[in-house]
Amino acid sequence: MLRATLFLLLLGLLPQAALAQVMLLIPGVQSQQQTHPFREAGVTVPLVASGWIDGGQMLPSVRGVEFDRSPEARSRLFYTLVMPTERPISMQAEWLNLYLDAVTRRHPDEPVILVAHSLAGIVARYSLVTRKRPEVSALITIASPHVDGTMIQLGDFFWQSPLGTYTPLLGQSDLRQLLELYSGISPDQSGNVLRWLSHQTHPDIRYVGIVRMADTVVEPMLQDLNRVSDLRGRAERLLSPGGHALAGSDGTILAALFSQSVGESER
Length: 267
Description:
Blueprint: H1 2-13, E1 21-26, H2 37-40, H3 44-49, E2 53-61, E3 64-67, E4 76-81, H4 89-106, E5 112-117, H5 120-130, E6 136-142, H6 172-181, H7 193-198, E7 206-212, E8 235-240, H8 248-257, H9 262-265
Parallel strand pairs: 1-4, 1-5, 2-4, 5-6, 6-7, 7-8
Antiparallel strand pairs: 2-3
Helix pairs in contact: 4-5
């Protein structure tokens, strides 16, 4: 009995291994060029430098979700996702669900971290509130609009309609036609996906909103997850300089947020 007790005590003194984690980097705007926005901005560089393994890119195919490489088995990996960012929020959420299903098959029982830029933050929240995703342990949003406002600015994007999430994201050239078709629709009306999301029950996971203080696309105060009714007091807020675009410093922030060992994360 004494020998067993001493053995357990010695185990407790050993260095803790890093917590097994899988991070998915979800773009808010996916350009037609091959480079992924997170990669193009250099977000992945600090992650690799801090010990994360680049798992490559996940992309759709006729056979379902495919991985463009087979990374070595490590405790912490990240993947970048190809998303149909010009499509409705609900459709993008379905794509995200397919990616999550593929990740859980490849990495069973490992917690998944969602990192979403701009409108992808809405997509991630939509996925989390409309379908149970027990594998997701955290949502990190970067410059994402989480609440509406009478003067909300979303650059070239506009998604409000009487059908809420089923209107595609349109460019400025289509905005006049959309307003004529849905005259009277405003951010204050019930068709707004942000207003609907704000009143949904969000899962009990970690939430972090990275707020861009010099953002001219999404007003900084609208990026705070604590302004969402169900998340008030539950979310962390990190103030970040710079504008709306991704930056290499985002990778440094992400590495710092998830640098804990197993022992530290359970405290």
